[in-house]
Amino acid sequence: MTKEDIKKVVLDIIAEIAPDEDLSNVKPSIRLRDQLDLDSMDFLDIVMELRKKFGIEVPEDEYINLASLDSCADYLIPKFKSVQA
Amino acid sequence: MSGSKGGASFDTIIIGCGMAGLAAGIRLAMYDKKVVILEKHNAPGGLNGFYFAGGRKFDVGLHAVTNFTEPFSRGTPLGTVMRQLRLPKDAFQLCPQKSSRIAFPGVDLRFSNDFDLLEAEVARAFPEDIDDFRRLRKTVLNYDALDLDKGYLSSRETVQGIIRNPVLEDMLFCPLMFYGNARERDMDFGQYVTLWKAIFEEGFARPLEGVRVMIRALLDRYRSLGGVRRMRCGVKRIIRDNGRAIGVELESGEELFADNILSTAGRTETEVLCGAKSDSAAILANTGALSFAETISVLPEEPAKLGCDETIVFFNDSEKFSYEQSVDAIDLRSGVICCPNNYSYRDGEQLEEGLLRITTMASHALWTGYDEETYLRNKEAWFPQMVESALRFMPGMLAEEVFAKTVFTDMFTPRTITKFTSHFGGAVYGAPDKSKNGLTEYDKLFLAGTDQGFLGIVGAMLSGISMANRHILMGGNG
Are strands B291-299 and B408-412 parallel, antiparallel or unpaired? Predict the structure, then answer.
């Protein structure tokens, strides 16, 4: 799974959680909260979907790593590697 | 998985299949938790259920769904509920109210789902106090009512510090108290803010077919996720082990075990399930004092044709508005009139018959103390008095005409409420002291619903969602 794949995975999850958000212009380097109407409950759901779909665990004190698509990719890439291994 | 000692075992047992229990169940089932909802009654919905009488379907408690926002804007309770439960936007088929009113002696304030109407009405009826009103609104909107760890703050003191006119103060309190306050005379400012937003800033709506549309949407979602529900399945006690809740014993004697228990039965009611004596001082001190009665008049035509084209009218006939336990069987001084016909249903659809519902405060002690014959006699005697009292505030609608045209009536009392909700004291809005964070004295036992403190149907769902998220999905039970 490449960083681009991971960004796509996260965007797909957001599309599921918030079907009314326009995701066509999400900038990977900018905080998701600054461009989309996401609250802490939505971030919980991103975490829950990652666990459900891929078996990836994100502890509560590491949610901050999910701030932007870029930071998601950097943070999640080793986690995807270890669950695929 | 801990706690299993024979008997079926779950991740979470939810007590109560009302709005909060169903919403929590959906959240947990969405994330593959093995969850069961236990309901004492045959029908789901709890306080917001529905029933059949005289060949008709009636909602138990629903006058209006508050917190209505259109379109489903983000950052609102309803928007959050729809998103968190992954429900289609129109799952609840909500249609907005026409307009509502607060009616006091010699002064009326109309309001609708557009806040500007209320502001214009305050400016018209209380021109000297409009700046106070605007300051109050600013205070309300700046208050973080979602902070679950905040303590009690008196609304009366807070509002009196801003609004100098006691009539305006009471008029604003009246709908907020009637639609959700569990405490006599005063209320927590967090609840004032929650209800202000739900009623004045957001507004009222209703599905054409009533609350069962919403229950059905929740049940379908829960079922599609594999959630299990057991009806006619009362809980006798919550089983504890070393300060930790581990399961329940059902009325039938069967035992079920779980890692978590989420109770929507109420705060004191849950304490009794954990072994507290129902007549102990601590339980009595936190039993809600406010119970209600409601008359339902079925009319052969729309109430608008008989002079009532408003959705909800909150009335009070006295110099001071008294929100406190009724001394008489019924407190005729104030109440709420609801016309379910007066919503803007789609495509000009309309209910088949006219409905007029009138709610007043009522004495739980008296109504539950009557023997059957006295109970029925009192219902018959109070019914017309409640209608006449309310219609004083509905000029153009004559009580005699309503009585002459009525084709069916029903009435519920504190006794009925006790039966439907199992709340001690027939307290519709539960215990005065809420557990906002949902914690109890037992580990792994959490509260949701009325006594967690979010209000109304949308609030109840939000409560179930928040507590499931906070204590179970995030609580290290993954």
Answer: antiparallel
Q: Which of B32, B84, B465 sits opposite A52 (nearest CB)?
A: B32
- Asked if A39's CB is within 8 angstroms of B474's CB, the reply is no
Q: Which of A13, A16, A21, A39 to mutate to test the interface with B (most CBs of B within 10 A)?
A: A39
Torsion of CA A52, A54, A60, A61, to 10 degrees: 180
Closest CA to B65 of B218, B172, B213, B211: B211
Taking CA–CA distances from B33, the nearest residue in chain A reads A52
* Nearest CA-CA partner of B129 in B95, B159, B87: B159
> Closest approach of chain B CAs to the CA of A18, in angstroms?
6
pLDDT digits (tens, 9 = 90+) for B314-343: 999 999 999 999 999 999 999 999 999 999
pLDDT digits (tens, 9 = 90+) for B346-385: 998 999 999 999 999 999 999 999 999 999 999 999 999 9
B288 within 8 A of B418, measured Cβ to Cβ:
no
Instruction: Return the DSSP state at A10.
Output: H
Say if CB B201 and CB B348 are below 8 A apart: no
What does the block give as tokens for B67?
């917190």
Contacts of residue A60 in chain B, CB cutoff 8 Å?
A: 474
Which amino acid, B301? E
Nearest CA of chain B to the CA of A26: how many Å? 18
The model carries a pTM of 0.94
Which residue reads 């919980």 in tokens? A44
ipTM: 0.89
**Are A41 and B84 inside 8 Å of each other by CB?**
yes
Q: Which residues of B10-33 are buried (b: 16+ CB within 10 A; e: fewer)?
A: bbbbbbbbbbbbbbbbbbbbbbeb
